[in-house]
Amino acid sequence: QVQLLESGGGLVQPGGSLRLSCAASGSSSTINTMGWYRQNPGKERELVATITRNGVTYYADSVKGRFTISRDNTWRTLYLQMNSLKPEDTANYYCNAGTLYGGTYWGKGTLVTVSS
After folding, report:
1. What percent of the chain has pLDDT over 90?
2. Residue 84 contacts by C-beta under 8 Å, 6 or more apart in sequence?
3. Counting beta carbons within 10 angstroms of the beta carbon of residue 45, is it exposed (0 to 12), middle (13 to 18) or buried (19 or more)?
4. What DSSP string describes 9-61?
5. What confidence tens digit (pLDDT) does each residue in 43-65 have?
6. Contact, 60 vs 76, CB < 8 A?
7. What long-range pairs does 55-63 form, CB within 8 A, spacing at least 24?
8. Higher confidence at residue 41 or residue 64?
9. How big is the CA angle at 51 (ends 47 and 54), to the nearest 5 degrees?
10. d(CA 105, CA 86)
11. Of the candidates 58, 56, 76, the residue with the CA atom closest to the CA atom of residue 67
């Protein structure tokens, strides 16, 4: 079992920056991949960025060049640095972890609002 807790969301003006964090606990040593997803009411959850155990990253086209995903070496904390934020980045952001044994875990989310 892996527990995930996001933090760092809030209200920011367009063009501003936020840094999201995701604290992992439990069997974090079994984590193979972590990622950030986002979702707005009535819409499907969409992938924002992922990072593998080997450090390989993937970004959605909509955030490429503006967002950076990173993690600490113990897999206990995942980050998402978000720069040049746009109103369309407004969403609930969720942390996800996939384990070596095929398990998938989600946090409860943190709200990011980009508005003037």
Report:
1. 84
2. 15, 17, 66
3. middle
4. -EEE-TT--EEEEEEEEESGGGEEEEEEEEE-TTS--EEEEEEETT--EEE-T
5. 999 999 999 988 999 999 999 99
6. no
7. 62/88, 63/89
8. 64
9. 155
10. 28
11. 58
